[in-house]
Structure prediction request, 213 residues.
Amino acid sequence: VDGFAGPGYNQLEDGTLIEGSPLLAIQHSNFTSFFFVEKNRRSYAELERNIRERDSSLSGIHLYRGDFNLLVDDILQQIHPRAPTLFFLDPFGLELRWATVEKIAKREKADIFILISSSGANRAKQDHPQTLDDFFGGASWRTIQQKVGQSWFEAFTEAYRDRMRRLGLNGTELVTVARNSNNAPMHVLAFHSKKDIALHIANAVFSSIESNP
Prediction:
């Protein structure tokens, strides 16, 4: 389940196009069903075209244009309650709502890759605190305490991941942090799951990325 699928490709700074998560996922036969959601009309049209170029039958592939937060109930109803399910949630900003994460956390088997945007969080903190309330699941982010040498965004990410653990979604020890030229974090990609084996595998992947970027 990719809640913020985009057009299927990602564009690098030099203009090079690389396959994004939807196009990578459909290449793997160990997935039996795919649910791709994209809100933007143009990106959705590109996503559908790119996927049809690889699988014209769209076998097992479900495409949605709309807000993942509003579609998640319908999607979850189509997936067997005990089916192992991977959720890839990488909003551009803070479009993901905490209420949506809570619904996913009720599943018996849920693995989640989740992206937390530094620019989205810092911008919302200044100008749109209600957006941050919806993302964080309340206003308690306002009282987050930073550790020595820790940025506010790092403390925010830590607090958000602690909240996920309280939902029964334990997190990896490692995360992948994208940084700009000033070494400031741009976003964090974290992994949470109810299964120890999934956390073990994800930690190994993150460790490999850190040692071989």
Summary: The mean pLDDT is 94.
